[in-house]
């Protein structure tokens, strides 16, 4: 039966049968994934292993989720699971420590992806918040950044980008800032200890 589903490309069904009907004897489900992902693209490999993880964690027929198996699968160095898929499926109460190995490995594998998207995104967000806080903390006067307000350094619109405002009212993009203590337009030093 599972062979039939496998041929039809219905991996989730096939894996459900292997895991819950046949009790996942001798790692048959993992073997199935290995067989069906051999020589396939990374997306397909990740998809198949992700399906097995789903089958372990979200059984359909009221069986108990197989947490141990799921953890073993995640921490298996030969298994490639998209961390996004994994994080959606994993129980919230699982600690980062428990997932440490998996997360470390994923970060290494997905290094490029993370560097270019997720990390950059959160850094930008963080800088944006920090820049805003800085302005609020250092100066209680309101600054209205209108649509056409431009950065006094690169002369590009500020729009809703992060910006920095120096005490002498000079406003520039966060990204154009080299030193928060020196106004890049006038060269005035605004002190600070660092
Ligand atoms: Zn600028």
Automatic annotation (TrEMBL):
Entry annotated with the keyword Lipid metabolism: no
GO biological process: autophagy; endosomal vesicle fusion
Annotated ranges, domain Vacuolar sorting protein 39/Transforming growth factor beta receptor-associated zinc finger: 142-179
Signal sequence residues: none
Keyword entries, A-Z: Receptor
Organism: Oopsacas minuta
Keyword Transmembrane: no
Name listed for the protein in its UniProt record: Transforming growth factor-beta receptor-associated protein 1-like
InterPro entries: Vam6/VPS39/TRAP1, VPS39/TGFA1_Znf
GO cellular component terms attached to this protein's record: cytoplasm; membrane
């Amino acid at each position: 039966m599972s062979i039939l589903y496998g041929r039809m490309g219905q991996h989730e069904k096939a894996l459900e049968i292997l895991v819950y009907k046949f009790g996942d004897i001798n790692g048959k489900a993992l073997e199935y994934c290995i067989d069906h992902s051999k020589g396939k693209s990374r997306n397909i490999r990740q998809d198949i292993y992700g399906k097995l993880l789903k089958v372990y964690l979200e059984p359909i027929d009221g069986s108990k989720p197989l947490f141990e198996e799921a953890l073993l699968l995640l921490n298996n160095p030969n298994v490639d699971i998209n961390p996004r898929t994994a994080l959606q499926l994993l129980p919230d109460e699982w600690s980062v420590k428990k997932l440490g190995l998996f997360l470390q490995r994923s970060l290494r594998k997905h290094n490029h992806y993370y560097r270019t998207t997720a990390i950059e995104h959160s850094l930008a967000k963080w800088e944006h918040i920090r820049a805003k806080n800085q302005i609020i903390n250092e100066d209680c006067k309101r600054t209205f950044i209108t649509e056409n307000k431009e950065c006094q350094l690169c002369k590009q619109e500020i729009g809703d980008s992060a910006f920095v405002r120096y005490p002498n009212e000079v406003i520039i993009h966060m990204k154009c800032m080299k030193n928060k203590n020196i106004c890049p337009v006038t060269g005035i030093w605004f002190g600070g200890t660092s």
